[in-house]
Write a structure and sequence with these properties.
By secondary structure, this protein is mainly beta. Helices cover 14% and strands 38% of the residues. A hairpin with a 6-residue loop joins strand 7 and strand 8 (135-137). The longest helix is centred in the first third of the chain and has 8 residues, at 22-29. It is globular and about 55 Å long.
């Protein structure tokens, strides 16, 4: 009997009951260009006189305006992420819309499995938001300080809708950082 090596084939991506697989959905949605933002919040101290709370940050591409009157924005957070857990308890948070020269900051705060954000903020130029107490990036296209108005469970994410309490444009003329087909991109002038 001749020696044959069994051929191993990878299983086809299992479709959802509606017919689209995770891979098909991810590939289609990667063709949607998105702006890149840094979402930040300050975790308050656990007790008066105790150690100070921590600053938390995460890169987001699922951020958008919702309403002009009242001024509302929306960010989509992975369910159970540190930011999702924090914003379930802390209603104040901030957004820095990233300029293309802030690519390293976007990459830094997109890392998975990090233990603490304290070191991530160490050499990043920021100011502390007067309303939210959260970090606002110097050199960002725009910054917003928000208070959570509503949280909506949506599949494996939480949609957090925030009322904008303060807005500024530190570097409004810089080109934006975008995300397209799984990579950060620069817009051509």
């Amino acid at each position: 009997m001749p020696h044959t090596t069994p051929v191993t084939t990878l299983p086809a991506a299992a479709p959802h009951p509606e017919g689209v697989s995770n891979d098909e959905f991810r590939a289609a949605m990667s063709r949607l260009a998105a702006g890149v933002s840094l979402i930040t919040a300050h975790e308050p101290p656990l007790s008066a006189g105790g150690p100070p709370g921590e600053d938390v940050g995460m890169t987001a591409t699922a951020f958008m305006s919702v309403s002009m009157d009242p001024p509302l924005v929306l960010v989509s957070l992975r369910e159970g992420s540190r930011m999702d857990d924090l914003l379930a308890e802390q209603p104040l948070w901030a957004v820095s819309v990233l300029a293309d020269h802030q690519l390293q900051i976007a990459s830094r705060f997109a890392m998975k499995g990090r233990i603490s954000d304290r070191l991530l903020f160490a050499d990043v130029p920021t100011t502390r938001g007067e309303v939210s107490g959260a970090h606002l990036l110097s050199g960002a296209l725009a910054t917003l300080e928000c208070r959570t108005e509503n949280r909506v469970e949506a599949g494996d994410h939480t949609l957090v809708i925030g009322r904008v309490l303060a807005a500024a444009q530190p570097s409004p003329d810089s080109p934006p950082l975008t995300y397209f087909r799984g990579r950060y991109r620069h817009l051509a002038p």
